[in-house]
């Protein structure tokens, strides 16, 4: 028997940029999918999992010829925007074909996700799950698929807070936004919005988000390298405002959580992932307890119980 693992991810900044050849700054987290694998001689793929894996098993069948018995366990909360399905796709591919690695593994997992879920996702989640480096965020260029690990400075905690609401309308709203970005790029005569200038997109809020977000990722990477946490926090807040006002993927609950985080002493916070529900991520001076006041304030205003957990940056997927 072998065991493979693949982590979830949290994106520190750079959302809705990956499918426009853009930049993002995710990190793999210490929450992961594990699969115990034993080979089968009959070529069948049998997966035992708490969540119905049949769409993924059907989608992987054409790709691999080996048979496996796979038992899945996961500590990545499902439906929260922490890429539980990307982690599962990466782990399942590794289970079926342990020779897959690097970009090939990430791209195969993205394709598996497209086929199994029908969501036309970008490649950020799979790249983060594959290329994670403990203690580092990953500056990811989705045009050439290069990854630069940048150390997370000492003295900060990364806190993830789940709004308690599943992501609503996610797949259709996501696909619509992606299509609108493609249309905006085509109208400008550029391959993707990565090639557009701020002046070109000033009248189109969706495109404006993508172009400004790429700049914020560059600036955030600089702030991280310089250990300038206050600057990083300001960029997170600006990124959240852009996702809310220009890209239209926030919710009142996520907006409230961001405010509660900064009120409780975070340098900054923002929704993370696709939006429409799910989680916010906050950059916090190490040891500052934001969990108590954020949870109390959120409960008082919404009647909902948020889930709060600190995450650390973990290594990427592999055979254990
Ligand atoms: C989801 C997708 C990613 C990315 C984010 C938004 O997580 O799977 O590819 O587009 O949304 O940044």
Question: Secondary-structure map with pairings?
Answer:
Layout: E1 2-11, E2 23-24, E3 26-40, E4 45-48, H1 54-61, E5 67-74, H2 84-96, H3 102-117, H4 124-131, E6 136-141, E7 146-151, E8 156-162, H5 170-188, H6 205-226, H7 229-245, H8 252-263, E9 268-271, E10 279-285, H9 291-302, E11 307-311, E12 318-319
Parallel strand pairs: 4-5
Antiparallel strand pairs: 1-3, 1-12, 2-6, 3-5, 6-7, 8-10, 8-11, 9-10
This protein binds alpha-D-galactopyranose (GLA).
- Distance between the amino and carboxyl termini: 11 Å
- Secondary structure class reads alpha+beta
Q: Share of helix among residues? A: 25-40%
Average predicted local confidence, pLDDT: 96
What do we call the CATH topology of the largest domain?
Alpha-Beta Plaits
Please state the CA-atom Rg, rounded to the nearest Å: 19 Å
Question: Per CATH, which architecture of the largest domain?
Answer: 2-Layer Sandwich
What is the spatial order of strands in the main beta sheet?
Answer: 4-5-3-1-12
Based on DSSP secondary structure assignment, what is the total number of beta strands?
Answer: 12
Q: Could you explain the architecture of this structure?
A:
This protein has 320 residues and is of the alpha+beta class. It is built from nine helices and twelve strands. The chain has two domains: 149 residues, Ribosomal Protein S5, domain 2; 156 residues, GHMP kinase, C-terminal domain (Alpha-Beta Plaits), CATH 3.30.70. It is 40% helix and 24% strand. Strands 4-5-3-1-12 form a five-stranded mixed β-sheet, covered by helices on one side. The longest helix has 22 residues. It binds alpha-D-galactopyranose. Alpha-D-galactopyranose binds next to helix 4.
């Amino acid at each position: 028997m072998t065991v493979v693992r693949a982590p979830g991810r949290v994106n520190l900044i750079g959302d809705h940029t990956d499918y426009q050849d853009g930049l993002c700054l995710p990190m793999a987290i210490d929450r992961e999918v594990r699969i115990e694998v034993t080979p089968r001689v009959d070529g069948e793929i049998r997966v035992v999992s708490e969540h119905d894996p049949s769409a993924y098993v059907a989608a992987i069948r054409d790709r691999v010829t080996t048979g496996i018995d796979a038992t899945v366990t996961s500590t990545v909360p499902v439906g929260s925007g922490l890429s539980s399905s990307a982690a599962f796709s990466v782990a399942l591919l590794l289970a079926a074909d342990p020779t897959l690695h690097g970009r090939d593994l990430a791209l195969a997992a993205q394709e598996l996700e497209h086929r199994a879920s029908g969501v036309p996702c970008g490649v950020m989640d799979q790249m983060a799950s594959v290329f994670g480096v403990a203690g580092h965020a990953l500056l990811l260029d989705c045009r050439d698929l290069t990854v630069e690990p940048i150390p997370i400075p000492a003295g900060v905690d990364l806190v993830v807070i789940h709004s308690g609401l599943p992501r609503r309308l996610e797949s259709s709203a996501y696909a619509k936004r992606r299509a609108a970005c493609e249309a905006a790029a085509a109208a400008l005569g550029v391959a993707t919005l990565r090639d557009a200038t701020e002046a070109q997109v000033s009248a189109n809020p969706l495109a404006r988000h993508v172009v400004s977000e790429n700049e914020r990722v560059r600036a955030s990477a600089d702030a991280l390298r310089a250990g300038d946490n206050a600057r990083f926090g300001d960029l997170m807040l600006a990124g959240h405002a852009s996702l809310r006002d220009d890209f239209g993927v926030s919710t009142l609950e996520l907006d409230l959580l961001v405010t509660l985080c900064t009120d409780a002493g975070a340098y900054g916070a923002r929704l993370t992932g696709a939006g429409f529900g799910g989680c916010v991520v906050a950059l916090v001076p190490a040891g500052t307890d934001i969990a108590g006041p954020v949870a109390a304030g959120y409960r008082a205003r919404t009647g909902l119980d948020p889930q709060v957990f600190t995450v650390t940056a973990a290594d990427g997927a592999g055979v254990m």
